[in-house]
Fold this protein.
Amino acid sequence: MPVGFRHGVRAFRHRNFRLFFFGAMASNSGNWLQNLAVPFVLFELTQKSVWVGLAGFAQFIPSFLLGPLGGSLADRMDRRRVLLATQSMMAAAAFLLWGTWAAGWRSPWLILSITALTGVFSGLMIPSWQAFVPSLVPKSDLASAITLNSTQFNAARALGPALAGVLLATAGPGWAFFLNGVSFLAVIAAIWVVRPLPSERKTQPTRGVVEGFTEAIAYIKDRTGIRLGVLTAMLVAFFGNPITQFTVVFTDQVYGAGPRVLGLLASAVGIGAVMVAPILSSWDTRIPRSVVIRFCLPFYALAVMAFGAAPIWPLGLVALLAVGAGFLLVVATTNTAVQLIVADEMRGRVMSVRVMGFTLAFPLGSLVQGILADAIGPQVTVVTFGAFLMVAALYLASKPRLLANLDRENDTPDRVARAD
C-alpha cells in the first residue's frame, strides 16, 4: 500500500479540490477571526464566563435544529447551489455584525442574535458542505480529501485567531467582523468555478424532511461504524471542544494576559492540528481507523486535562498544540469512516445527523462549562471535563472489536456483514 507525503496530498492532483481547498481556507480564516472576536467582546462587555458559553450556544444550536432540513436540501438539490446560496447569506450576516458594531450598538444580546442568525444559515449549509467534498475527487482519493479538508479548516484555525489577536489589540473588533465578511468572497468564487464529478446518487429522495430524517436514523441504526463516528464526535464536542472558546477566559482570569497572548493560544489548536495532518493523510492506508481512535482519543483527553491544569500561558500553549493534534486525529478519522461507509444517496442526511450531534454537544458543553467556570473556576472545570472524556476514551479503547466497525468501506448493514 502506498504511503508518504505525495500519497497523503494526492487529492491536490484534482483542480476542483485545489480551488475548493484554498477558497475554503480563506473563508474559514475569516470565520475564526469572528469566532474569537465574539466571545472576546462578550466577555469584555460582561466579565462573565457564561456569556462565552452562550456565544457557542447561539452559533451552533440553530445548526442542530435545522439539521434535518439541511440534510434534506443536500440530498434533494444541487449541493453546489445550496452552498452558493448559504455562503452568500452568511456573508450578509457577517457584514450585518460589522455594521452594528461600527454604528456603536454594543448590546450583548444583539451580538448573540446576529451570531444565531449566522448559525441558521450554517445549519442549512453544513450537510451540503460535508457531502460536497466527495464529489471533488474520485473515491480512491477520498481519505486524502477529507483529511486535507480538515487540515485547511485547522490551518484557518491557526491563521484566523493569530490575526484576531493582533486586530483586537490594535484596530479593534470591528476590523475582525469586517474581514470575516470579505473572506466569504473567496469561497463563493471557488464554489462558483468548480465542476463536481457526476453524482453517484441512485435515486432522488422524494420523501419529506421528517420522513427523510427518519430514514437516515434507521440507516445509521443498522451501521455500527457510522454510530461510532457520530458518538465519538459528540464526546469530543461536549467535553473537549469548548476549550477553543475558553481560551478567552483563561487568558484573562488565569494568565492575566492580553489579546496577543489570546491570539497565540487560540492559534495553537490549529497549529497542532496542521502539524499532524501530513502523518494522518500519508498513512491512511496503513493504520486502521479503529487503531487511530483507540490511542488518539485518550491522548486528546489527556491534552485537555493538561491545558486545564497549566498555571502559566506557555505551558497552556504547549497543551493546546496537543489538543489540536488530538482533535484532528479523532475528528478527521471518524469523518472519513462515516464518508466511506455511507451510500451517496444517503450522504447528505447522514452527514446532517453527524453535524446535528456535534452542534448539539458543543454548545451544551460550552454553556455547562461556562456556568461551572463562574461557580468553581475555569481550571477545575476543564480538568473535570477532560477526566470524564478520558473515562469514555478508555472504555472505547477496551473494545477493539467494536472500534473495528470504523474500518468498513461500504454501506452494508451490520446484519448482512455478520452473515458473511
